[in-house]
Design goal:
Low affinity Fe/Cu permease; 2 domains; 142 residues; 82% helix; mainly alpha; 4 helices; elongated; transmembrane
Length: 142
């Protein structure tokens, strides 16, 4: 528990720091500095190894931090959506569908889209009928 909480705290801080424009500018500055020092070190293997090793280590560690952040964000969003579905008139059967396969989710999504199109068409027909009725009522009172 302690490690998980500490890792989450570190992950949050690193995610916040790396997502800032100043951090990106610093990374660009480091690469420019490295490139400028190339002639000084005669573009040696050691000079190349410095940036290759550094970027490899940073990339390797960032994969885990990004994945952790994505997992937590996804779980938090899912919990919020589940609560909204539970608390509203929406269908509670959608709670937990994130555990289905991609094909099953695609099937449900297609069904929801078809249902939404049908409801939109019905609403448009109702609006059209209401406008016609309003025009007829206006004519009748004129």
């Amino acid at each position: 528990m302690w490690f998980s909480k500490t890792f989450t705290e570190i992950s949050n801080r690193v995610s916040q720091a790396t997502g800032r424009p100043a951090t990106f500018a610093a990374a660009v500055a480091i690469i420019i500095l490295w490139a400028v020092t190339g002639p000084v070190f005669h573009f040696s293997d050691t000079w190349q190894l410095i940036v290759n090793t550094g970027t490899t280590i940073v990339t390797f560690l960032m994969v885990f931090l990004i994945q952790n952040t994505q997992n937590r964000d996804g779980a938090a969003i899912q919990a919020k959506l589940d609560e909204l579905i539970r608390a509203s008139a929406a269908q509670n059967v959608f709670i937990g569908i994130e555990h289905l396969t991609q094909d099953e989710l695609d099937e449900i999504r297609a069904h929801c889209e078809a249902k939404a199109r049908a409801e939109t068409a019905a609403n448009q027909a109702e609006d059209h009928a209401n406008r016609k009725a309003a025009k007829a009522a206006e004519k009748a009172t004129s």
